[in-house]
Design a protein that fits this description.
Shape: elongated
Structural class: alpha+beta
Number of domains: 3
Number of strands: 21
Number of helices: 9
CATH class of the largest domain: Alpha Beta
Order of helices and strands: HEEEEEEEEHEEHEHEEEEHHEEHEEHEEH
CATH superfamily of the largest domain: Threonyl-trna Synthetase, Chain A, domain 2
Strand order of the largest sheet: 2-3-7-6-5-8
Length: 448
Amino acid sequence: DLRMEQQKVQSRNKADAKTWTVSELPQADQVFHRDRTASRTQVLAVYPDDAHHDRSWLCLSETVFYAESGGQVGDTGWIELEDGQKVPVYDTQKAHHLSMVQVGFGPAFWADHQNVTALLDSNRRANISIHHTATHLLHAAIHHVLGHSASQKGSRVESDRLRFDFAYDKPLTQEQKNAIEAFCREHIQMNHAVVTDLLSKEDAIARGALAFFGDKYGETVRMLSIGADVSKELCGGTHAPELNDLVAVLICSDEAVSAGVRRIQAVAGQSALDFLLASRSRCAAISSAMRVSDDLIVQTVQQLQTQLSTTQKSLIALRERAFVARLQSVQPIHRHDGTQCYVVEASTDEVQFFNQGNDLLSERHRLNNAPHTISIIWNQDEQGKITMQLCEFGAHSEKTHELNTLVDHLKVEYGFKGGGKVGRVQLGLQGQHDHAWSHILKSILKIT
């Protein structure tokens, strides 16, 4: 599919962006036909594509392709040769005061002063324009719902989606998302006029247009207005001719991208309809699988979540009781100095019960009237990570530091990390290990 290939190439170009010096460029003016879909033109210059040997960059005397700028992606389309052959245009990028189109075939295929016809992919441009106008409307909606402090921090406008970054320090609530979408929906239904005026920057600012720090503006700027006072912004991009072309603006995601900056991804136009149809299809599939009507899905899911939570708690309680019961039957190994030692291997599911297990062993120590007890409960998971909890109970004065000595040895000799409180320490060791830990621990504890 040509358009899919154009999209893939355009994505790769971002990482392999071609740059030109002024001296490389033709000393000529270029005419951009913003409102045309085709134009007879001439190749002014041909440049190799350093990242793709089967591509070239062309500078045209007249062009219908909008170069990537202001967050809007570059146009695609075709270059038609005199014999009727159409060569794909994969991307359009700025080169100082000119725009360049990335086309198929290497430089040897093309010639300076070659006469060609530039053909715009008008459907893709229309969808880009819809999403660009939707970005302006979304910006106004965010200001309306969150306040003017939620200033724009960046945007990306594509044919099937838009991305909008803004200053805000917490996730949007569902109520805020609903309010933003409702604001957009209300004004789309009113079908406000979408008007572009050419005027000086000073006049545009005086009329209330938003300008963005870091953007470069000439003496004459383009001001995009939605309705009388819904939105006014300086913008050189392309836009939908009518607001109801947007159909709806639907938020697909909301996430943090840096401290104090959030990112909304949204869709409009046909993409919004596709999004709704996909959501409806998923809803129908869930409804069918759960054998409930659409209006009962949320209630049924909540009931299932409650049941699952109750079942999980019961399962955890059963596992804990089984683990504790197993420890009841574990027999200590007695050292020649009278110390009793427990070395217990636990399953990964039982790691969460280390404290309860050592509490039980502490109680057994008390009931046995043992003078000194050391216990180690440990686990090695499928990834090789070792987790262990070491405890010391009823230490005589000369034994008080045995646990500390053991912990220091494990940290220095094997690289364990961790800590804890007096008499109880939890350690961990990442990675694959072939050591037979039960035997190593027994040898460290001087258990024969």
